[in-house]
Amino acid sequence: MPWRFKQQQAVQVKSNFKVNSGNMAKAAALKGLGYAILPIHACQEDIDNGSLINIKLDHEPEVLVLYAFYAGRKYPLEKVKVFLEFLKSKCATLQ
Fold it and tell me: Residues with Cβ < 8 Å from 60, sequence gap 6 or more?
């Protein structure tokens, strides 16, 4: 599974340990199992206390795309709309 970067760059990574969760990737890195590409806000405390090391890369990682799925109504309920707006606002502050 390759690591993907902007400008259509990719690095093929050989690994015996693969995850599809940022939390699991961080936990594995903290246990010394390898490298992980993580958002800085998710690991700043661990970098500050020396548990993780920030390695500067030559290329910027590809932008993470987040999708929200909800049950099949043509028009979502108001509470779903409010929750989606909340998610958008919280994600916007992470950039």
Answer: 5, 6
This prediction has a pTM of: 0.66
69-87 pLDDT, tens per residue? 777 767 778 888 899 899 8
On whether the CB atoms of residues 19 and 28 are closer than 8 A, the answer is yes
3-state SS class at 4? strand
- Grouping H, G, I as helix, E, B as strand and the rest as coil, residue 74 is coil
What the block records as the tokens of 34 is 């390898």
Tokens of 65: 């795309």
Spacing of C-alpha 88 from chain mean position: 15
Query: Residue with structure tokens 């490298």?
Result: 35
